[in-house]
Amino acid sequence: MMQNRYCDVTLPIHKNVQLKIKKIIMVKIFNLIAIAALLSGCKAGDAAHEAVERELRGSWEITDLRGNKPKTIKPVRIEFSEDNRVNGFLGCNTVRGTYMADIKHQRIKLNGLATTRMTCPDQNFENEMTKALEDAANFTFEDGKLVLSGDDRSPLATFKKISHPEVTNKYWKVVQLDGKAVTMEASQRQEQYFILRSDGTVNGFAGCNNFTGAYQINDGNRIRFNENMAATMRACPNLGFNERGFLEVFRLADRYTVSGDTLQLIVGKRMPLAVFEAVYF
User: Fold this and answer.
1) Interval 230-278: pLDDT, tens
2) Residue 7 CB partners (closer than 8 Å, separation 6+)
3) CATH number of 171-279: 3.40.50.150, 3.40.50.1110, 2.60.120.10, 2.40.128.270?
4) Taking CA 112 as the corner, what is the angle to CA 111 and CA 118, rounded to the nearest 5 degrees?
5) 248: which residues sit within 8 A by CB, 6+ positions away?
6) CA–CA distance from 2 to each of 5, 33, 232 (Å)?
7) Rounded to two decimals, what is the model's pTM?
């Protein structure tokens, strides 16, 4: 019976062939590294673009219009939403439309802007504000602020991101003070209210006098108002409302709760010092 005999045979490979094989392997490794780096760069670029998009979305309060600080009583703001809609408040009228943003080149265009048609005391400002929004072609972020500029890159308007939007930049009208309902008296020119602005200032009307000051919101719905609030000194002898008691609320309050359009200012674990309702114009 014959047995098959096998043997391993090693064929010699020419040195040039070996070099060619090594070169091919190195080229493939290099290509794989390059592709991995490209994919990584794309992901990093996408992440950067997404971060800019997230920063752009949200509510912004104007701080500068063509080099001038707005002097409107109510905060002027715009809001960019995820569905490419834009809406805002011009101080008296509201505005809405759509927007397109080229995140990579930081280009922006607001389209189809339409405003309500109420007659306003500062119509010139509203017209300038609307024109600035229509002329906006670029956007940048500078020191946490949003700057809209024209085709020539000249600044048109600067905005500050609105923090704590559930309570800031809203017109809060008092409806209850120290557990008692508050109604507007015939001798009052308007109801008592206050507004927390994005820049950390507060202003309002106490029933006879206007007041202004500063505030700070901390974690856990903690709030503190500057004790040195400034107020006008008008005398209102026919006013039955306790104006001093109203202003005392801001000196004492250290916490707030908000539910929808109802805000309570509280001190410690006591009953609310005052209850307010949001008013929209």
Assistant:
1) 999 988 887 778 888 999 999 999 999 999 999 999 998 888 999 999 9
2) none
3) 2.40.128.270
4) 130
5) none
6) 9, 55, 121
7) 0.63
